[in-house]
Design brief:
121 residues, single chain, Tudor, mainly beta, Tudor_domain_containing, Tudor domain-containing protein 1 (Trinotate prediction), 5-stranded antiparallel beta sheet
């Protein structure tokens, strides 16, 4: 489209748009330059980290920078993990599992500590 402007240079921490193999442009943050042709990005609305080709990146329009990221760092309260030994494996599998979590604290690093809802405990 006419609003897509390819990048001539990238820097770590730079917000960009990244064209994904699913066919869409996603808000991303450059985490690491891997080579002259690739870098690691985090899709800020999903929390997914991926290595992509530099040619799949574009400048991001300022209007897209004001919306907060939709993915937030969180951790499950340790006391509940022993009750659900397979929970970590299920969440890592990426099978589209959706669980409503209960916010219980914020750590000094800004990570949200969450608990599982009563029906899962």
């Amino acid at each position: 489209t006419s609003n897509i402007h390819k990048l001539s240079e990238i820097t770590v921490g730079m917000p960009v748009l990244c064209f994904n193999e699913t066919g869409g442009w996603f808000r991303s943050l450059i985490l690491e330059k891997r080579s002259e042709k690739s870098c690691s990005v985090m899709y800020v609305d999903f929390g997914i980290i991926e290595t992509v080709k530099l040619k799949s990146l574009s400048m991001i329009q300022p209007k897209f920078l004001f919306e907060p990221a939709q993915a937030v760092p969180c951790c499950i309260d340790d006391s509940q993990l022993s009750k659900h030994p397979n929970l970590v494996d299920i969440l890592k599998s990426g099978t589209g599992v959706s669980i409503n979590l209960i916010f219980c604290a914020c750590t000094p690093t800004g990570t949200f500590k969450v608990k599982l809802p009563p029906q899962l405990t």
